[in-house]
Specification:
The chain is an alpha+beta fold and about 230 residues long. It has helices at about 10-15, 20-25, 85, 110-120, 120-145, 150-165, 175-180, 185-195, 210-220, 220-230, and strands spanning about 30-35, 40, 50-55, 55-60, 70-75, 95-100, 100-110, 170, 200-205, 205-210. The chain contains ten helices and ten strands. The strands form three sheets. Strands 2-6-4-5 form a four-stranded antiparallel sheet. A three-stranded antiparallel sheet has the order 1-7-3. A three-stranded antiparallel sheet has the order 8-10-9.
């Protein structure tokens, strides 16, 4: 007798759907490669596609006049891009920019709206993730205001690790400074301290987490609060 195996679904939000519902949705999804630096949404512009990252990483950035863009959210395999559509808004309030190249599944905004209206379980999953993303954004705002750079950097590296499911990734110090909203020298000093403690290795933009437990101890409590909302590891 032939046995039907269910292929693992890389995106957690989609994986939470009953397989029949996922199959129906999958017929309208197309795989797409996202490349580093690619801008998926710009503030105020219409949202044309919904994205479900599988092994890519996307940063949500807010733009402030006279300053560099500041990261307010990080989305990987645990969620989706295009939440405003589920709330009846067809424009993005932030810039969504690819931070880690990889694959995603996407569908048009019209297709998503059609599926969303008909599928109560998809609605429940998207609303749940909307809440998780709100927690991440508010916790990130508090973290950027009150916590030391080293703890913030450790938190950010751990969040990245969880979403790309790898202890190694490419990130320049300039990019990290922009993500954290600090000067480059601040990131240099913080990364140097983490490296001296043998928690990470860092060479020409290639970062490796050597001691995950030690890095968690170095991070602020914000990391655990965000992770507890949705275990993406």
């Amino acid at each position: 007798m032939q046995i039907a195996y269910r292929v693992p679904i890389a995106n957690s939000l989609l994986a939470a759907l009953p397989f029949k519902d996922y199959q129906q949705l999958r017929a309208r999804l197309e795989p797409i490669a996202l490349t580093f630096g690619e801008v998926l949404y710009r503030p105020g512009e219409p949202i044309r596609h919904i994205y479900f990252p599988t092994d890519s990483l996307v940063s949500l950035l807010t733009l402030v006049e006279g300053h560099q863009a500041l990261e307010v959210g990080l989305i990987g395999r645990e969620g989706m891009l295009g939440i405003p559509l589920a709330l009846g808004v067809n424009a993005s309030p932030v810039r969504a920019q690819v931070l880690g190249s990889g694959m995603a599944l996407r569908m048009t905004s019209a297709q998503f709206s059609d599926e969303f209206q008909q599928n109560a379980l998809l609605q429940r999953g998207v609303y749940r993730y909307t809440y998780e993303l709100m927690v991440q954004m508010t916790q990130t705002a508090a973290c950027n205001r009150f916590h030391q750079i080293e703890a913030r950097l450790a938190r950010w590296l751990l969040m990245t690790r969880d979403r790309v499911q790898s202890n190694q990734f490419h990130l320049t110090q300039d990019l990290l400074a922009n993500m954290l909203g600090v000067r480059r020298v601040g990131v240099t000093n913080a990364a140097g301290d983490l490296r001296q403690r043998k928690l990470i290795s860092y060479n020409r933009g290639e970062i490796s987490i050597l001691d995950g437990a030690g890095l968690e101890a170095a991070a602020c409590q914000c990391y655990q609060i965000i992770k507890d909302m949705h275990n993406v590891a």
